[in-house]
Specification:
Length: 123
């Protein structure tokens, strides 16, 4: 399962569609940030795919899927931070502290905030 943090303009996450971060706006941000890239695999195949340490394959479909290219670490293993645009917000699953800081910088640029599943705010 996991824990999601989101970049949102809404007071509460379910309201993100009322104050959305538009897909075109997100794509423009990603293209302007040298540390971010749109996931080419999604553009070519319609999905991103990765193998987990236990041998399972995760397939993720999201038109606005982007990767933070700066190194990030979760424990001792290298960690890829995927930023998924969905329903007017940007979602990252299980972000580490460095990724949360990046999310806060992105939120500031988009005039938004970072919020957790329980409604907690991050700065």
């Amino acid at each position: 399962m996991g824990y999601d943090l989101r970049i949102t303009r809404a007071t509460e996450s379910p309201e993100s569609e009322a104050a959305p971060i538009l897909l075109d706006e997100w794509v423009a941000y990603v293209r302007a940030d040298p540390e971010m890239r749109l996931d080419e695999q999604v553009e070519a195949t319609g999905y991103a795919e990765m193998n987990t340490p236990d041998g399972n394959t995760i397939r993720w479909k999201s038109k606005g899927l982007a990767t933070w290219t700066a190194p990030s670490f979760l424990g001792l293993a290298k960690h890829t931070a995927w930023f998924s645009h969905r329903e007017g917000e940007i979602v990252v699953k299980n972000p580490d502290k460095k990724t949360i800081r990046k999310m806060c910088a992105i939120a500031k640029s988009l005039n938004a905030k970072v919020q957790g599943d329980e409604g907690e705010a991050y700065n």
